[in-house]
Amino acid sequence: MCGGGGAFRVDNLGYLKNTAGLYLQGWPVDSDGNINADPSDLNRLRTINVGQVGGTAEPTTRVQLNANVKSSQAVSAEAADAAAVPVGANAYDPATNSMAMWDPETGDGVKPDFELTIPVSDSKGGQRTVALAFLKSTIPNQWYAEIRAVPASDVITGAGLTNGQLKTGLVAFTQDGRLDIAAMQAMGAAALFPDPAAATLTFGSSDSAAPAAGAFNWAAGLGIDDQALTFDLSASAGGLTQYDSASVVQAVLTNGTAFGNLSEVKIDDTGYVTAIFDNGVTRRIAQIALATFPSPDALLESTGNAFRVSQGSGTYNLKAAGTGGAGTIGSSQLEASTVDLSAEFTGLITTQRAYSASSKIITTADEMLAELISIKR
Fold this sequence. Notes:
The protein is α+β, with helices and mostly antiparallel strands. The chain is 13% helix and 32% strand.
């Protein structure tokens, strides 16, 4: 059967149905986004049900930082003690006296010179927070840096990491204030990221085995999946900089979304049925199959503005819209009338006036004949 009435609405069971009670069918999209289409197998088609499309979330995988640390920032006592020989009593140390340990109420740990926070969505759409803290060192253009989870209880860390730390090391800048990638590569393991172009944090899942030294997992109580978080620290539009202006965050750009519910269903001109969620995520759920026939004029008309296969029409072939001679789909459109109303009204008025004029002529002729007959008498 080939449907012609396209005003589909979602029924109480979640199926797309038109006003004639006919259901929309198509090839379903699997979890990998693939479609198993067959031009001659109707069994591959499924009735499209948007009620079975649940909410969705996307984990954060990319972070772009546009932030500046002040080049004239005074060196803290803790950073000075760290550079002293011998090392001072209150020296900064990422393992024993770190920025992650800072507590403003007790004064424990080291207060960062600057800190920014990054919102992160996990695999369930839950919101996590990662903080990046900086402490200026005594070496020009170098800063101590720590990345940590907030709160620290969100992660389980391996040896060498404490208080929710995820990564520690040095960040270097060039003399003109840009991130010094070559210097950080030369630092090797001492750098926050030995290769800033591959600055990635990898979180193990909540059910992973205990993390190795320098590794970390999401806490078991969160029950979330593993996650790789890549930082863009040297973006052309900003990145991390060290200019002699206030330490400030211009922008923190991340992907990923929190949990969202289905808000709308759209069909494009190639027949893809797409679910749109209120968190901005879109997901294809099916593709409408169009049937073509060797002789479409021989199809038999059926109820509901539909047509059936006949002996003269030939065998159907299922195709995606816009391929193999199949037309495209006009979504959210109503077919315009094939009659031009303005032209028809103009013709109606012209005909009415012509009829009135003809009536006047007949009436006048009748009166003239009547007058002639009366004269004769």
